[in-house]
Amino acid sequence: xxxxxxxxxxxxxxxxxxxxxxxxxxxxxxxxxxxxxxxxxxxxxxxxxxxxxxxxxxxxxxxxxxxxxxxxxxxxxxxxxxxxxxxxxxxxxxxxxxxxxxxxxxxxxxxxxxxxxxxxxxxxxxxxxxxxxxxxxxxxxxxxxxxxxxxxxxxxxxxxxxxxxxxxxxxxxxxxxxxxxxxxxxxxxxxxx
Length: 193
Known about the structure:
Largest sheet: none
CATH superfamily of the largest domain: RNA polymerase sigma factor, region 2, helix turn helix motif
CATH class of the largest domain: Mainly Alpha
Distance between the termini: 61 Å
Mean pLDDT: 81
Structural class: mainly alpha
Radius of gyration: 23 Å
Order of helices and strands: HHHHHHHHH
Low-confidence stretches: 103-111
Number of domains: 2
Number of strands: 0
């Protein structure tokens, strides 16, 4: 058995015996590659950071099972792949839910429906208020007034490329804000009905 596999086997045995030092060594050795893979697939540093922590928490939780793993690197790759797929599926479900809610296509019983729409608009306003001023302007002109990049660029005296960048950043931040606050709230409301 090659020396690196022997060392890996020793690390896994120590990890199964609750060795924090073994866990730290595994983390330091493999987390950069796992993070790079996460960032490659997710294209979002915050999501990659979060999933990196989730993956290594699972490593610690499954440390007894890992002692049986043939190759830790392959095992971590599979965990990373599965975590990315699960994360993307969950994100797609949330965004679908949010976009349906935003377009008012969810069946909303009256008189509560008016209240729920009011809460949604207030939440959206709070999300927009978190944006830098220029992004707020671009977002409002694009979403509320439905202006094109060119029209926004003319109105704000900035380039179309700057408009595009501001709008991308603003939409990403608004979606993240809404996902953070709207999805749990809507699930809670649906459970309570």
